[in-house]
Design a protein that fits this description.
Length: 428
């Protein structure tokens, strides 16, 4: 087991290239199950969530070949193997195996998903969608059993705007008989990416990226090639880091439109952000002004950037209020930031961040993926050395984080935990 060490305070400059989007990838990979011939996805990030999903495809009989960041999946000999336990529990996105296997085989057994602990994360809207399409869904000993004689298109209104439910229902509906209409659908770019892959496979989908998606079921879907979109959350994380410590940082391979809410807030704080085709140029500022943010569904401020943004707010003049309306308990990073001298108070679903403060290096623990990103940002800002444990969370979502930051001039490295540290970690 390793820890991440950062000697903070350095000015960052240069270029960082953004990888393919994790939250698209985790849906695109299960979507390949629906085809009857090989599908190639280009530009996948090299992160642990992807390795787990690839293994799951192999477990159900898929033939998977990797060529650099391109993955080819031949789904022809897959079977509806039950996946009640094991790897499926390691990440939340394994729930996409429900929609994809139901869509192809009309049956599936999938363990209830794991993933980041951000408070309650129900999947009732996914189930509501599957049932509307004609599936029987039961929960037996921690696994979800889905069975259908046949799937028939339906009109489904989502009571909560959910990325996962929108994608999962699309996966189950593309081969159903007749038309499915998803109302109050989520509009995140990852949904458009999945719809683009499915359309290239032969699906008939209209309206992805709006709140009404219409799907006309088709009998078969076949192989194709698809290039994944860049990861807007990874790009946003480096943009935030550059805002705090960057002289001039070029963020390469981004879709600037995907980051409009973040860019607007950074400009309000006094950061210079220039958007050029698929690049952002970020010039940091040492005299930042505080702002308030409220996380909302896309195109609002993403909950996934709230945590790293909190680290930036510690450097701004005044008190900024961070309110998370998506995951009201997503504040586990705050205690760790306090160890680094941050002045933050949490009340209900809001954190009040007062600054500017001099952050100091400390021993801290990443409790989830974006909490990890927040601690990395804080470590780069802080004086002295920050030691971060819980790297398995960071490795789930950030490809080559250490090397990418080194390229920008950061002093960052990984070390094995000593036996004593490993023991403390297990007990913490
Ligand atoms: N919700 C329900 N019922 C449902 C589904 C969701 O009540 O059936 C609630 C959730 O509890 C939450 C809200 O609806 O309060 C939105 O959840 P959503 O379903 O949109 O989240 P998700 O699909 O499980 C994805 C990302 C998350 C990201 C959220 C919100 C993936 C694999 N995960 O989760 O990403 O925070 O959308 O944008 O795509 C991350 O990358 O760190 C991460 C956690």
């Amino acid at each position: 087991m390793e820890k991440l060490l950062i000697e903070g305070g350095r000015t960052l400059r240069g270029k960082v290239r953004i990888s393919g989007a994790k939250n698209s990838a985790v849906a695109l990979i299960p979507a390949t199950i629906l085809a009857d011939s090989p599908v190639t996805i280009e530009g996948l990030p090299n992160i642990s969530d992807i390795s787990i999903l690839k293994n799951l495809l192999v477990e159900i009989g898929g033939k998977v070949t990797q060529d650099g960041s391109d993955l080819t999946v031949d789904p022809a000999s897959m079977i509806s193997m039950p996946l009640p336990n094991g790897k499926v529990k390691k990440l939340r996105a394994s729930y996409y195996f429900m929609g994809a296997m139901l869509g192809r085989f009309k049956k599936a057994v999938i363990g209830l998903p794991g993933g980041c602990n951000l408070g309650p994360r129900p999947i009732d809207q996914h189930i509501k969608g599957f049932e509307a399409l004609g599936a029987q869904v039961t929960n037996e000993q921690g696994a979800v059993y889905l069975r259908a004689e046949k799937l028939t298109g339906a009109r489904i209104y989502l009571d909560v705007v959910s990325v996962g439910a929108t994608i999962n229902i699309m996966l189950a509906a593309v081969k159903a008989e007749g038309t499915t209409i998803i109302e109050n659908a989520a509009k995140e770019p990852e949904i458009i990416d999945v719809a683009t892959l499915l359309t290239s496979m032969g699906a008939k989908i209209k309206g992805a990226g709006t709140d009404v998606i219409r799907i006309q079921g088709v009998e078969r879907l076949s192989g194709c090639r698809h290039t994944i979109i860049p990861d807007r959350i990874e790009a946003g994380t480096y943009t935030i880091i550059a805002a705090a410590k960057g002289e001039e940082v070029l963020i390469d391979n981004v879709i600037p439109l995907h980051l409009e809410s973040l860019i607007a807030k950074l400009r309000e704080m006094g950061v210079v952000v220039e958007a050029k085709d698929d690049q952002l140029i970020v010039r940091g500022n040492r005299e930042l002004t505080s702002v308030d943010i409220k996380t909302l569904v896309y195109p609002g401020f993403p909950t996934d950037l709230q945590q790293p943004f909190t680290s930036l707010l510690t450097q701004a003049e005044g008190t900024g209020i961070v309110t998370d309306t998506i995951y009201q308990a997503r504040f586990k990073h705050v205690d760790e930031l306090r160890r680094m001298n941050a002045n933050i108070k949490v009340e209900g679903s809001s954190a009040f961040v007062s600054g500017p403060v001099k952050l100091e290096g400390a021993k801290v623990k990443a409790s989830d993926l974006r909490a990890g990103a927040a601690l990395v940002a804080a470590g780069l800002i802080a004086e002295g050395v920050t030691e971060i444990i819980g790297l398995e969370h960071i490795d789930r979502g950030y490809e080559d984080l250490t090397d990418k930051l080194k390229e920008l001039g950061a002093n960052i490295w990984r070390e094995e935990l000593t036996e004593e540290e490993a023991e403390q970690f297990q007990n913490s």
